[in-house]
Amino acid sequence: MSPANKADKKATVDAAAWMFNVVTSVGIIMVNKALMATYGFSFATTLTGLHFATTTLMTTVLRWLGYIQGSHLPVSELLRFVLFANLSIVGMNVSLMWNSVGFYQIAKLSMIPVSCVLEVVLDKMRYSRDTKLSISLVLLGVAVCTVTDVSVNAKGFIAAFVAVWSTALQQYYVHFLQRKYSLGSFNLLGHTAPVQAASLLLLGPFLDYWLTNKRVDNYQYSLISVMFIILSCTIAVGTNLSQFICIGRFTAVSFQVIGHMKTILVLILGFLFFGKEGLNLHVVLGMIIAVVGMIWYGNASSKPGGKERRSPALPINKSQKTDGLSESTEIDGKV
Question: Which residue windows are transmembrane per the record (predicted)?
Fold first, then answer.
């Protein structure tokens, strides 16, 4: 295959991966919003455990059918990843409870600079001036859209700090583990989803009771609410898989920056389906600024020197098979 054809194929697969992530992420947010707001199922941590249980079922069936080959991930690495991932989920839920919506949004926005710090320190990544400015423009636009009242307290700040750093570390580790151990997205999910499902289903009911003062076993289940739960779990399989695919192909920073397109789409769909309250000129202006920043980032980071490592790529674990795993290794020097 000629270099031009390879570049075209890569661009097509990259675009498909982003679209897969955007569609599933926005879809699950809208379904969960309806499930929680309309049907009163406010047990977010338990629901996330069910998501990973469904993902575990999917990876088990695919492995049984032979679509996922055997692979190795050290227990220490697995437990470290699950710790970061679960702290991210719990931290975000607690941060939302203890902080104002405005500070919660600021905390979410800070994941981009934190992810940048991790890449600079751990991967020796270097960003061009245009790349840095485009990231700043995205942050400004999303902040204009979403940040309203801003108040902070000590315990809320601690919860936000834990949530931001654990989320950034979890997303960094997705890319790191795929590169180091030559793991495809399905392989990595097959290792991590069962442990996350078990831990969250054990912890979730207690945490949700603490957050909402309601017990999941006392919830009045109906046919429609159960159908929404099943739909949420089904979409979550795609969301989990697409996140691993995107971070594996790109980096955590790129996933965060371009991923704010999901924030814009959720705002637009929220106005369409749940009422136009809050839609005003400064929200529209923020959306426009954010989209311009995303386009600028995509252009700036793809140029030579826009975003590249200053050291050789991470060595691959020789014990792992490398065929069929190009999705996580083909972009190491430039992202």
Answer: 12-31, 43-66, 78-96, 133-150, 156-174, 186-207, 219-241, 253-275, 281-300
**DSSP of 47-114, one letter per residue?**
HHHHHHHHHHHHHHHHHHHTSS------HHHHHHHHHHHHHHHHHHHHHHHHS-HHHHHHHHHTHHHH
Expressed in angstroms, the distance from the first to the final Cα of the chain is 22
For range 51-77, the mean pLDDT: 92
Pairing state between β 125-127 and 307-309: antiparallel
Q: What kind and span of H or E run contains 285?
A: helix 281-302
The mean pLDDT value for 40-49 works out to 93
Q: Which residues 6+ apart lie within 8 Å of 121 measured at CB?
A: none
Token pair belonging to 169: 């570390």
Long-range contacts of 315-322 (CB under 8 A, 24+ apart): 315/180, 316/179, 316/180, 316/181, 316/182, 317/180, 317/181, 317/182, 319/72, 320/71, 320/72, 320/181, 320/182, 320/183, 321/69, 321/71, 321/182, 322/182
pLDDT, one tens digit per residue, over 132-155 is 898 899 888 888 877 766 677 888
CA distance 25 to 23: 6
Q: Is 311 left (phi over 0), alpha (psi -120 to 50) or beta?
A: beta
Non-local CB neighbours of 259 within 8 Å, separated by 6+ positions: 21, 25, 246
Q: Which two tokens stand for residue 219?
A: 């919830």
Which residues, 6 or more positions from 153, have their beta carbon under 8 angstroms from its beta carbon? 98, 99
The two structure tokens encoding residue 16: 């498909």
Q: Which residue has the tokens 């991590």?
A: 192
Beta carbons of 309 and 333 less than 8 angstroms apart? yes
**Does the structure show a pLDDT above 80 at 178?**
yes
334 phi and psi angles, rounded to 5 deg: -130, 140
CB contact at 8 A, 108 and 167: no
Q: What's the full length of the chain, in residues?
A: 335
pLDDT at 97: 80
Contact 87, 45 (CB under 8 A): no
